[in-house]
Structures are given as structure tokens and as C-alpha cells.
Amino acid sequence: MDYDFSPEQTALRDKVRQALKEAPVPDLAGLEAGQLKEALLVWAGRLAHSGFLAACRAGGLGLLLAQEALAAASPSLLLGLAGSPQLLGRLVAHYGTPAQQERLLPALEQGRALGAVALGEGGTSVERGPLQTLAAPQGGGYVLSGSKGPLLGGPLADWLAVAAESPDGLVWCLLPREAAGLSLGPRTATLGLEGAAFGGLELHDCAVPTEMVIGPLPDRSSLTVVRAWEDELMVAAGLGVLARCQQAAVAFAKAHQSGGKPIIAYQEVGFKLAESLTLQQTAQLLAYKAAWAAEASQREAGALAACAKVFCCEAAQRVAGEALQVLGRAGFARGNPVEEAFRDAKYLTIAGVSAEISRQHLGEAVLAAY
Amino acid sequence: MEFAFSSEQRMFAEQVLRFAKAEIVPRCAEHDLNSQFDREAFGRLGRFGLLGLHFPEELGGSNADVVTSTLAGYALGLAGVDGGLTLSYGAHTYLCADTIFAHGTDQQRRRYVPKLASGEWVGCMGLTEPGAGSDVAGMTTRAVKQGDSWVLNGAKMFITNGPVADVALVYAKSDPQAKHAGISAFIVEKGTPGFSAGQPLKKMGVRASPTSELFFEDCRIPLENLVGGEGQGFNMAMRTVEWDRSTLLAPMVGSMEYVLGKCAAYAKQRSQFGRPIAQFQAIKHKLAEMKVFVEAAKNLVFRIAWCKDQGRPLNHLEAAVAKLFVGDWSLGPSNEALLLHGGYGYCHEYEVERVFRDCRLAPIGGGTSEIQKMIISRLL
User: Fold this and answer.
1) Among candidates A21, A300, A167, which has minimal Cα distance to B294?
2) What is the pLDDT of residues B244-280, one digit of tens each?
3) How far is it, in rounded angstroms, from Cα B186 to Cα A195?
4) Do B299 and A296 make contact, defined as CB atoms within 8 angstroms?
5) How far apart, in whole angstroms, are the C-alpha atoms of residue A183 and residue A187?
6) C-alpha–C-alpha distance, residues A277 and B259, integer Å
């Protein structure tokens, strides 16, 4: 047992912090799509030097610490950058052919291209039912038709992996954004995380050559695996939201005076912040342990990941709400980190495996264990 | 960062689990229902070595580290030992015996620690008063030096093991002007003239742990019964916080994991509408809530234990976080466990009812949740 981080575990975080110190994060939410992509690629290039993007493919506790630091500065920046190597990069690395890996991974991990994974669909829960996006065999490859709901990074992606149902089983098709028959929708207006860019896509007779197809896969486990990777990202974003809100709320409560003393001195405020800190520290340890368990291939890794997802993302939502309350009218005004975080946090309990489904998985894990 | 226990620690926890299931648990329900301290079970804990794990061998201990000691408490809860017995074990070992071990003279250590570690004697700690709980400096029990004696006058309240204790470690004001720095600690043995314990208080939970008032009426004790020097009492009491937030909280967390297992088993065998209730989403939701609590609480409690093993000074913020989380956040899952059992959960013969009652002490005893929030908010 060791509750201290090793130098190896903190090395990447320190590099990310250094990068954040050298260049403040711009207001991503206010940028139009082209400018946003440019800004994300600048940051991708900056962080690629530190090994951050490559680490997103590998995962682990060191990565989680680095992502927490990045999300504390900007949850949008984390999701806008890390979704690419962590979802598309891992998918290609785990399931793709060597040729596919050679073609995509260097660009994604050197920060030269952005990628996205197209899984969710409007009318169905993709994990349970058959996908409505279909892949019809043609030549050695497939022709895709269907549509995908708003996906993280979709409007900006240079490369996409589209999950589809073929007669022979599940396939993932790797498409460049300019692929014929692929139409990327505009940025969807969202409650929060405006700097991460969400958007849907349409597929009409979109031909995919065989060398760009992953699969047909023997089972559907890649769907849940991708969701689990998304969960890791949401947990990191949740820790970032917690840090961002707690820091802003404490600073405000110390500076804002009422009745001749800072409002933190009042129990209604001080106790709220104490509860928030408790949630933050508890969330951190749960997330760190889940990351450690995954890295160490512990038997309980799956259950711990679900615990972390549920707790960290819901704690982020709750703490953001409390922080906003502490900031009062100042927090309610647009353009401060707490109101942004309040809106951002909602996505975290929805994305990946939702809080509801995560609890069902956890309940099933408990039933299986006893 | 590395969360795994060593293989020795895991093996020891297994031993404690087996011992407790065989030797202790079968006795728990009866003693809880009768609000009776189980002296026999307490002795068995002593003979197994659990009442002095961290003491050196020459004083009856096993030189165990704090994580191992915390794991032992966790295993007791996990086995299904009631919160009453584990509270008595914790207060005896870590609030009384350890304070004598850590701050006492060699003579005091030799006289008291082996008998407390073996379970031959039961110990208690007297800090809280009828009019002074969290506000320790407000205590009014007085200790006055007269010739070759200290004379104690006053009363203590809510004293775990009070009615059965052979040895009491009592905090009193030796200098009433000096607030915290005027508090000193004294050993008072059962039978000392002027020292008495009240009737056991009737409590909602932890009922097998006897609780009472202690009374001191011109209670004369030898000068050498002062522990740790005059005015050192407050610091000594604060040192117990590390134990309180690790070894004393651990059985509660273990107990919640025990209940989780009970709930899962019940959900699988209880059928409604033609299928086991385990198949309903609402039931899985409750199990998930309990599981999240257990995993989260374990991390916090063992962090305090591990830091103590590293010889680090107590991190008051982390200690308060652990206490606040276990105290306040255990109420929801223990409630869910009871509700999962429906009408049966409301009946004594199902352990969830006992754990529900026992858990209610968590946000109160050893520093209320409000005090933890006060500590945290001041340290922010």
C-alpha cells in the first residue's frame, strides 16, 4: 500500500501543468468551428511533445492525473483533445490492423489530426439492440447508410470510426472526413462543453474499402469497451470540474465580505465548502484506485471503474451546484468558470455509460460476487 | 500510489475473519438485543491478540503496523461482528490502552498495557462531559494536586465501556485558567474511593457496548497516575484522532460491506411478482449505492492508517474528510439496506436493522459531522 504518487505517476501531470503555465487556455467556447479546430490542434501539438496524446492511448494513473490537471483548466480542452487518441486511437490500436495503425496513430498522437468515434444513435441504446447504421457488403468492403447522434469532436474530426451492423457482425469503419457519402453535421448547440464540439453525421451510400474496416468482429464487446474508455475520460473531466469549482468557490468565499467578515467564516458557506472538499477528495481516491486497478489488472477493476464513474461525475455535478450557490449572483452571470463547470458537469453523468446503467452494472457485479 | 495490501496483511485479515465468524458472531445478536456487554467475546478478542496488535511483544502485542490494525477492525465488521462490540474494542484499545502506551511512564505501561492487551482488564476513556462535548476546553472536571495525590471532582458523560471498565483514562482541568493547555490525563482504577460509574444508558444502537456516566467525588489518586505530564492532556486526546479515523471507523465500513453481502443474498432468494427481486432495477440501484460507499470509505480510512505508518503528523483535513464521509454518507446506504429487506428489515432478526441503528452513531461519536465541517472549513 502506498498513498503517495511515484515520480513516474506525476511526471506527465507536471508537464501538462507546465504547458498550462506557459500558455493560458483560450476561451474555446467563443470560437467558431474553424478557429476552434485550429486552437485544438495548436494545443494538441503542444501536448504531443510531452507525450500526453500517446499516453491517452495507454491509459493508467499517470494519465488520469495529467487529465485531471488539464480538465481543471478547461474540461472542454480535455475532451476536445483527449477524445481523439483515447477513443479513436485506442480503438485502432486494440482492434485495427497494423496498416490501419500505421496510417492513423502517428497523426492522432503527434497532434496533426483530430479523430472521433461514432457510436451513439438517435433511436436506440446501441449496447443492447442492433445498430441502425448498416454496412452492406460491396466488393471486399462495405457501403454504409444511417446516421449517428451528436458525437464528441464530430464536426472537427479528420478521421472517424463508425460502428455499423453488417450481415457478418459488427464492423467499425474508418473514414476520412472528406469520404464520399459522409456528411458531418454542424456543431450542435449544447448546454455546456461548447469548446469540445459535438455534432452528428449522416451516411448515404458511403463506400468503405476493406483495408479501412475493423471487423467483422466475433462479438459486440468492443461497444462496451469504447464506453468504458469514454467513462475514463468523463471521470478525469469530473475531477477537473471538482477542482475548478472548489478552487473558485473557496477563493470567492475568502474574498467576499459580509457583515465585516469573509463569507467562508459563516457556517452556511464554510460547511458547504467542507462537504464539497469531502466529495472532491473521496472522488479523487476512488478514481485513482480505479485507474490503479485497471493498470494492475485487478479482479475488481470493472466494478471500481463503475464506482468511480458514478461517484466522480455526480459529485462534480453537485459540487458545481454548490459552488455556484456560494458565488451567488456573480456565479449566475455568464462567463465565469463555475457557471461553465455547472453546465459542463451535466454531460459527465450522461456520456459513456450513463449513471443509471452504471448503477445497474454495479448491482449486477455485486449480485455475482455474493 | 498502490492500493493493494501485502500478502501478510491479507492472510491476517482472513484469519481474523474466520476467527470472528466462528467465535464472536454467533453471540452478537443476543447481546445486542439484551444491551449486554459480551465479556466472554471481549476476552476472546484479547486472546486472539486483537486488543493490542500494535503494542510491542513484551507488552502483549504483535508489533503490527497501523494498516494491519485497521484491517483487523475492518475484518471484524466484515465478519458481521456488531457495532457495539467493535466500539468497545476500539475505545478500549485505541483511546485508553494506546494513550497509556504512547504517553505513560515505563511503570504505567508495565502495569496497565499487558492486562489491557490481553483483555483481562477493560479500559475506557473519559473526555466528554454532560456540558462539554465537542468543546473540550469547556470541561469542568477538576484535578487538584493535594500533597501526594491528585483529587478529581466532576462527571463524564457518554463513556464507552464506562460501566465495565477496570481502568479509566480521565481528562480533567489541572489548570482551569489555561483552557486547552490546562487539561491533564489521569489513570483511575475501578474501586478507587470517590470513583463510580452510572447505570448503562439505553441507546438506539451499538447496544452491546455499555455506555454510562462516570462520577468523581473527591476521588483521590496517586501523583504517579498522571499520564504524559501536566497540561498535556489535550494534545494526547488529539493524538487519538488518528486512531479514531482509521481503526475505529474501519469496523463500520467492514460492517457495511457485510450488509452488502446480506442484501445481495436476500435479493436473490426473495421473490415478488414471480421473480427474484434482484432482477428489479431499483434493487440493483440500492446495491450499487452501498458498493460505492464501501469502496469510497475504504480508501479514506486506510489513507489515515497508512499516513500514520509513515510517521507523518496527522493531516487534520484528511482525517476530518474521512470522518465526515463515513459519518454522513453511511446513513443513505444503511437505510437502503433496510428498505431492501422491506418489512423484514424492520425486525430485529435481520442484521440490517442492527447495522442501521449502529450506523447512526457514526456522525455523532468521536466528533460530530458539524465539527468535522468546522475543521475542514477552517483549513480551506
Assistant:
1) A300
2) 888 899 999 999 999 999 999 999 999 999 999 999 9
3) 64
4) no
5) 12
6) 28
